[in-house]
Specification:
Elements lengths: L1 E2 L5 E5 L5 H13 L4 E5 L6 H9 L8 E7 L4 H8 L4 E6 L8 H8 L8 E2 L5 H13 L3 H34 L2
Parallel strand pairs: 2-3, 2-4, 4-5, 5-6
Antiparallel strand pairs: 1-3
The structure holds 5-O-phosphono-beta-D-ribofuranose.
């Protein structure tokens, strides 16, 4: 388990095969300087570890859990049933997935009362951003980094607008 000194976000996944997707969430948290831990917790294969992880989350200082799983992806929902901190679910198209919809629906279609904030298939990056946004509601430094991130997003699109406009004009003129 990779672990910052005092992690406030827990990133968990059902299998090491999910890591290539879930590492995008870790990259975002690193970018926003939010301490996190990342580990494997399987609802099917390590159910007792799952109970222990979720039920000790608050006392260990976690504020949010990002949980990714594929196929019959019940890890995020089970974690949500065991804690009151927000759970962000990342559906993963895994080797046992039919086409990814199985994982999307397993995580998304939680019954009323036990929500999992579900991102797109493979959307670990957005899970990291949502976690940062939640932290940013009470952490000014993270909020400032998020504002800067949004400004950069806008800037990069506007640069492409200018590039496309210039390229288009050049191509048009040369016809
Ligand atoms: C799920 O089963 C895991 O989250 C993973 O996406 C999928 C396949 O696991 P492996 O067979 O690759 O370990 O529980």
């Amino acid at each position: 388990m990779e672990k910052a000194e005092n992690p406030i976000v827990g990133i968990i996944m059902g299998s090491d095969s999910d890591l290539k997707i879930m590492e995008a969430a870790a990259e975002v948290l690193k970018q926003f300087e939010i301490p996190y831990e990342i580990t494997i917790v399987s609802a099917h294969r390590t159910p007792l570890r799952m109970v222990e992880y979720a039920s000790s989350a608050i006392e260990r200082g976690l504020k949010i859990i990002i949980a990714g799983a594929g196929g019959a992806a019940n890890l995020p929902g089970m974690i949500a049933s065991l804690t009151i901190i927000p759970v962000i679910g990342v559906p993963i198209k895994s080797s046992n997935s039919i086409d990814g919809w199985d994982s999307v629906l397993s995580i998304l279609q939680m019954p009323g009362g036990v929500p999992v904030a579900t991102v797109a298939l493979g959307g670990a990056k957005n899970a990291g951003i949502i976690a940062a946004q939640i932290i940013g509601t009470s952490d000014k430094k993270v909020a400032e980094k998020l504002s800067h991130y949004k400004q950069q997003l806008e800037k990069s699109v506007l640069e492409k607008v200018n590039t496309i406009a210039a390229d288009w004009q050049n191509n048009f003129d040369s016809k």
